[in-house]
Amino acid sequence: MSIQHTPAAQRENSPTRAAMASMAGGTLEYYDNYIYALAAALVFGHVFFPTGAGGVATLASMATFAVSYAARPVGAVLLGHVGDRFGRKRVLVTILVLMGTCTFLVGCLPAYSTIGVWAPVLLVTLRILQGISVGGETAAATVLTIEVAPPHRRAFFTSWSPNGIVGGFVLATLVFIPVSALPDERLYSWGWRIPFLLSALVTVAGFIIRAKLAESEAFVEAREENTLVKVPVLEVFRSHWGAVLRVVLCSLAFAIDTVIKVFALSFATTEYGIAESTMLWVLIVSHLGALVTQPLIASLADRVGRKPVFIAGNLGCAATLFAYFASIQARSTPLLFITGFCSVTLAYAAINATYPSFFAEMFHLRVRQTGMALGIQIGLIAAGFAPSVYLALTADDPKNWLPVAIISAVIAVAAALSAVTAKETAFTPLDQLGEPIAHTPAPDTAARPRTGTPS
């Protein structure tokens, strides 16, 4: 059954609007994620945990950040279920409101000195809800965008979702630098709250954009024709388990991002005495560059295919990380900026620009959001343990970066080899994407929509 759209509906479903909605949501999600990470490392041990606990307070504070990684697969399943059964837009708006509300409430929480143990309890609760939200964001934004994008520009339009992630990192870092410079008394009392409260502005802007979206024509047709599945996660494991496994293995490449943003930052400042401001500006400049290169690289992936670009990005990271660590050892600021550009703005940007379309195109429309989200979030759990593994590798010789670079290169090569096993989908029509469903699902009368154009 073909759905006829009015011109207004077509404007609501335009690829540009979908891409901007993806970028706005990604910026909010990862602005929130990064300011939480910075606050957990610098502030929360003092504010939300008993004073005098020393290193235990810092450890407990960092644990509140890590707990979100356990919640992400839950978010992938729950939000994927809603998106694959009831609509992508509904999930996108829900995610934005959930993350924005939780982040704002973190900025309003009383300290441990005011309400005692309820302070860390409320903090952990909000962090779990944030993790659920993050677990569904990238997949939901990518799936809606890919289903409205022109066939020959799917990678370009979906690349604006990771551009939002990069923008969130840059924005969080820029906001937190002056805040962290406040005197301790002001920082611990009210200063740390500013970045969290400012998230309300991004939330409102993102909501305005996402509220004007409509469902993709492809999803509406599937819903009208009664071909949606009742339990997407079961269908994913029944007929798309190979694609999920492939996405998990390809997602190991995200550990490279952890090496650059977390381990190398700490390594350079603590072991080689490089100023924290220098390293932060290396990261800011290289990520600002990625905002430009990622859409360009995605356009290349639309011309030559997803696989060669994704594979080249991984192999490029495997090589450039050695140069990046060598520049840290040399304490050379110019080399840091040059190798940071090569690692982040070029090599990792090729991964970041390509993975949304590459992963989403492995799945059929009926399970696309669930499958993509689940594969990414399972892979990210492994990436989340990367800093601990890297610290263990350098325990005997803290200045020896070679084992970290070697392991990172092995991870990148493994992700590239996983990509080799995938089908090239850049030139496959939308309705032919995804491994074939093994059986015809039973009619799902619950999924039948009311008459009228969805909004």
Protein model, in words:
The chain crosses the membrane at residues 30-49, 91-112, 156-178, 190-209, 243-267, 279-297, 309-328, 334-351, 372-395, 401-420. InterPro entries: MFS, MFS_dom, MFS_sugar_transport-like, MFS_trans_sf, Sugar_transporter_CS. It is a multi-pass membrane protein. This protein has 455 residues and is mainly alpha-helical. The protein contains 21 helices and no strands. It has helices spanning 7-12, 15-42, 44-47, 55-86, 88-108, 112-115, 118-146, 154-158, 160-180, 184-191, 193-211, 217-224, 232-239, 241-250, 254-271, 276-304, 306-330, 333-360, 368-384, 386-393, 402-420. The longest helix has 32 residues, at 55-86. The chain is globular. Mean pLDDT is 84; it is low at 1-11 and 438-455.
List keywords for this structure.
455 residues, disordered N terminus, globular
In short:
This protein has 21 helices and no strands. It has 455 residues and is mostly helical. The chain is globular and about 60 Å long.
Helix amount? over 70%
In DSSP terms (H or I, runs of 4 or more residues), the helix count works out at: 21
Straight-line N-to-C gap:
18 Å
Instruction: Kindly provide the radius of gyration, computed on alpha-carbon positions and rounded to a whole number of angstroms.
Output: 22 Å
**Strand residues, percent:** under 5%
Average pLDDT taken over every residue: 84
Poorly predicted regions are: 1-11, 438-455
Q: Decide which structural class fits the backbone.
A: mainly alpha
Q: What is the tally of beta strands?
A: 0
Shape summary = globular
Write the H/E string, N to C.
Answer: HHHHHHHHHHHHHHHHHHHHH
Sheet with most strands: none
